Amino acid sequence: MSKVVYEGWMVRYGRRKIGRSFIHMRYFVLEDRLLAYYKRKPQDSQVPIKTLLIDGNCRVEDRGLKTHHGHMLYVLSVYNTKEKYHRITMAAFNIQEVLIWKEKIESVIDQHQETQIANGNKYVPFKYKSGMDDGRTASSDHESRFVAEGLSQAN
Questions:
Q1: What sign has the CA pseudo-torsion 114, 28, 74, 142?
Q2: 71 pLDDT tier (thresholds 50, 70, 90)
Q3: What domain range is 53 assigned to?
Q4: CATH number of the domain that 67 lies in?
């Protein structure tokens, strides 16, 4: 297992097809090369609901302040520029928590950009360990369905 950079409870924020927003409390874990979230604090070899590989091509986008049933949320979106539809959107009820997560994720991205420069801009592939992601994505994630639909329409 990679070294955990930061972890904690955040809100999983998204929109359904009919335009209504939803929020779910999720436990997010940021590792050296991976951002993942779980329904509860992960135990040994627990499979995450969704993961996002963090490399030098990732970006953290501040989506600003949103409201959900009267609750104010500060929203971040993390995505890879090569796969813009594979993203994780997370939020918090206070801006301090969002700023901490944004700083931690950007520092991990910066480390990978420095590694790419040190290697002469050569792409260093990341090898998944068995059982790390298990190829599973969350069926409840709005973005995951769009990615599957977008790929099938593109072919």
A1: positive
A2: confident
A3: 4-154
A4: 2.30.29.30
